[in-house]
Amino acid sequence: MTGVEVLQLLVSPAHRLAGRPSDGPADGSPDERVTRVEVRRGFGLVGDRHFARLAHRDAAVTMMAAEKLPVDIDPSADLRHTRRNVLLRGVDIDACVGATIALDCGTGPVVFAVKRPARPCAWMDVTIGPGAQRALRGGGGVRCTPLSDGVLALGPATFRVAAGPDDAA
Q1: Does the N terminus or the C terminus of the chain have fewer Cβ atoms within 10 A?
Q2: What's phi and psi for 54, nearest 5 deg?
Q3: Are strands 150-153 and 36-40 parallel, antiparallel or unpaired?
Q4: 15: pLDDT confidence band, cut at 50, 70 and 90?
Q5: Mean per-residue pLDDT for 64-91?
Q6: CA nearest neighbour of 44 among 141, 152, 161, 163
Q7: Cross-strand partners of 100
């Protein structure tokens, strides 16, 4: 087990980065960050735009490492800019693609299958600044499927790889 910190959680009821980046983000709450969120197995984060949507069920939750944020481009870059759901400090989550992980914020572990990279799109150059999309390549986070119900909350947490990508065979 590794000690990590959940720095931010974002639950967005609406998809704000649709269409052309030159048109800017859609209207919505200026801050959709929360202090805790309920996770539902196979469905995602309660209240989020991807919750229980068939097209997103295998990747309903996105996680990102704080260490990968392009703070040299914008020191205030955070989940409001990247549109990821969970910002972690202390783990290279991008290296966990194919693994099953458990994140315990103190109320019991929540298990996720880390399915694939969350590749940065052209919107990053708009929401963070020019060059952000390129800076985030290989570090834009991961898309996950929740395998258990539970609660994620801000603050210290434990992280463990429950099964690596080679354990699935």
Answers
A1: C
A2: -55, -40
A3: antiparallel
A4: low
A5: 83
A6: 152
A7: 113, 163
Can you tell me the distance from the alpha carbon of 38 to that of 20, in angstroms, rounded to the nearest whole number? 32
Length of the chain: 169
CB 22 within 8 A of CB 169: no
Residue 91 has pLDDT above 70, yes or no: yes
- pLDDT for residue 169: 41
Question: Which tens digit of pLDDT belongs to each residue from 101-135?
Answer: 999 999 999 999 999 998 777 777 777 778 877 87
Q: Which secondary-structure segment (H or E) carries 81?
A: helix 79-82
Residue 143 is encoded by which pair of tokens? 């898309």
- Coarse DSSP helix, strand, coil percentages of the chain, rounded to the nearest 5 percent: 20, 35, 45
Sign of CA pseudo-dihedral 103, 105, 159, 86: positive
Q: Which residue, 65, 53, 155, is CA-closest to 114?
A: 65
What is the C-alpha to C-alpha distance for residues 86 and 117, in angstroms, rounded to an integer?
Answer: 14
In terms of Cβ atoms closer than 10 Å to its own Cβ (0-12, 13-18, 19+), residue 19 is exposed
Tally: H helices and E strands in the chain: 3, 11
